[in-house]
From TrEMBL:
It holds the Pfam family VHP. Residues 749-781, 815-837 are annotated as: Disordered. One of its GO terms (biological process) is actin filament capping. This is Villin headpiece. GO terms for molecular function: actin filament binding. Gene3D superfamilies: Severin, Villin headpiece domain. Residues 868-933 form the HP domain. InterPro entries: ADF-H/Gelsolin-like_dom_sf (IPR029006), Gelsolin-like_dom (IPR007123), Villin/Gelsolin (IPR007122), Villin_headpiece (IPR003128), Villin_headpiece_dom_sf (IPR036886). It comes from Macleaya cordata.
Amino acid sequence: MSLLSKVMDAAFQGAGVKAGLEIWCIENFQLVPVPKSSYGKFFSGSAYVILNTVLLKSGVLQHDIHYWLGNDAKEVDSVIASDKALEFDATLGSHAVQYREVQGHETEKFLSYFKPCIIPIAGVFSSESGDPGSESYRVSLLTCKGDRAVYVKEVPFSRSSLNHNDVFILDTASKVFLFSGCNSSIQERAKALEVAQYIIENKHNGRCEVATIEDGKFVGDADVGEFWSLFGGYAPITRDVSCTVQKPEIPSRKLFWINPQGKLSQVGTDPLKKEMLSSDKCYMLDCETKNFVWMGRRTSITERKSSISALEVILNSQDRSTGNHIIFLTEGSETAIFKSYFDGWPQTVGLNLYEEGRGKVAAMFKQQGYDVKELPEDDSEPFIDCTGTLKVWRVNENEVSLVPVVEQAKLFSGDCYIVQYTYPGDGKDEDLFYAWLGHNSIMVIPFSENYLLFSTNQISELVSLLKHNSCCYAQIIEGKEPAQFYLIFQTLIVLKGGTSSRYKKFISEKGIADETYAKDKIALFRVQGSGPNNMQAIQVDLISGSLNSSYCYILQTGASIFTWTGNLSSPRDHDLLDRMLLLISPTWQPISVREGSEPDVFWNALGGKAEYPREKEIKCYVEDPNLFMCTSIEGERKTSFIIFNFTQDDLTTEDALVLDCHNEIYVWMGHHANIRSKQQALTLGMKFLETDILVEGLSLETPIYLVTEGHEPSFFTRFFEWDSSKAQMHGNSFEKKLAILKGQTQKLETPKRSSWKASDLSSTGATTDRSRRKSIISNGLGRSVSPASHVLGSNFEGSNSRRFSSPSPIVRKLFRSSSPDRGIAGNEASPDSHRNEIKDGSLVSQLVEPISNSGTPSPFQVDESEVDDVLETFPYERLKVMSDDPVTGIDVTKREAYLSHEEFQEKFGMTKKAFYELPKWRQNKHKAALHLF
């Protein structure tokens, strides 16, 4: 039954045609749009409908519908919100996923729309009047739970509300206190700081101090005394009864049919199969803490409403409704998590979406009077500077040997190689190392843990030898090379066989014929690429089945050279064919053959004519990346959950995370994470590929990049709105957030990083640079000193835009460095803080040290004798960031101030007075070198 004919509620008219959030509230039994200025404000006495629209790379709009129910909302409003969400889905084509959100138990996906949190407001939403207010400021106590998505809840303003496990925020008119329970995690404390700053900016207009209170520390601190005085004085917090930590169990999975009478009838348990679902019925998948309602395509909207109502009644009777997440799916719109509960869910590739989705979706909305622009084609382009230098080493047994420049564009399938690419970065040269593993080399070194250790050990030794330990490392396998690998080579020829002694020994022992390429042998090459600066010739099996109508080929025989052009190949492919021919056989005159007019001698060289692919190869679009948090369960690392609407702040230094870009993955290692070595990180990446959490058919040969905190390359940071000053900060997550909150970041020293894009380059500059660098080497290949210097010039400006679409979270401006009332905070310079001076005939730009509003200097900018009068001193070994016995209860942004005169002079080579007279950026450089920042 088609549901598209249903009449759309007038409030939904025009909704869902643009990416972003749209919110409605139930008021007087009607849907009322919520003003954008009020997005993120939810009244506990109301029910809401929320639509999030994402524009996928395919050009298709993806919709998620949430209906949020306040704890004090009327039952009739909750029912209306549920029904309207279902009707809205029907008008959008029954492709949306619906989520039931209950106050205090929201899904992390929902909370990710509103950064850093939502704080429900008592009362009922009204479209006619503003927010209810009071003459006096009401003191409130909030509890913050969660180290990723933060659940904020107001609790009674009483000492009995405090405990040792959570983080609390006490919001008063003049100050915001953050109390950290001794058992709370670093990440929870860091997230609570974001909430505190959100409160300061939104409830205090930025005119409020923040004080951090540590559980158990109450002596000699004015803020601590003030905090406890608000509770009537200090008294110990009652200790929680200790409980045995139970081993996490895999939740059971049961599938029920919801019959027309609203009763559940069990269909099956593990293992579940897709065949158990019928298109004319509704089902409930019970995963204990999470419930899915699957609605068949042929069910009516009435059947769906009754199934949802019946499910809520059943769960209420089992006391599971409040905390359980309920997700509603229509057949065909199943989420990856839902599919993962079924064994062998069929993999479907939506190629038709890529080819037809843009036009169909655009046409549909244009009929409704809306203009929807189609996405441009996503051509391969570099995200790093491609004017660097390239070195290639061949791995032979336990040794590596440098490949001569004239041969480094030729890789043999039976060998392993280490590729070092050095390119200009942010103020210094950056290094990228690839371990390239030929397919036949995998026979020599089995694809196992030993194989992984082999590749990482070899590259680790080389990296250590070259003293490039902060570099980015990637493991790639022949046939799965990322586009960037081809771009830095420009021209690459992959040949069969191998030259290493390991390969020669292997084929000799196995009695395998040596198929190593030689000019006097018959060989077939497939030519591919996107242009002269990105072209490859891949030697393929010498059979007719290796041909494909979408490509061009070079067939080399003992007596002649054939070029074969497929009927579906393009003029660009023909140009690449001519260029590659000059590299492989520059002295031979080719015999040009078009598909369908091949002579017998051509087929004879391939062992006879046979069938081969003749359909057009359709390029699949690559979906937006996903970020996964990794947890440790009994020593075995497993990826556990996805981080929705991720940002740079989700890269917490205590964790290791996996950025899944589908065609490649990145393992990011924080400085304080348990993973320390490349071997461990690579093993984690392999475990991620094996698990395939999103059931997307990830190959075990997917490229794996290893990235360490503070050394993120631009092709990784392009997935974020990246602030380099955050990446260079030291300390744990809480210390970093506290430093940012106090305005102590050095954004002027390390500006936001830009992404490399071919379109950013000046054509004039590129031409000049190209003519200067170009050189011809002995094999006839026009090879520049820098691999792609004739693609990219020296104009390195680029935008910092993300290269993919994603849900747009409602993000408050957190950690604002200045306000009209506080002046310039930390080391942020005002527009007037730069002055230019002429020294030695050159223009020197300096930063003028900021001062506070009162005009008095900072406590840390006084004479050293005064510093010692107000601060206790500690030894350097306890003050440095990575100390085994760190000092607590100090201002972590001013660690150096706690050093004695003598030790300060020894470490910094100057007095404290001389140090504090330096510009702030120079102070921080000294501190960073001594691990005090």
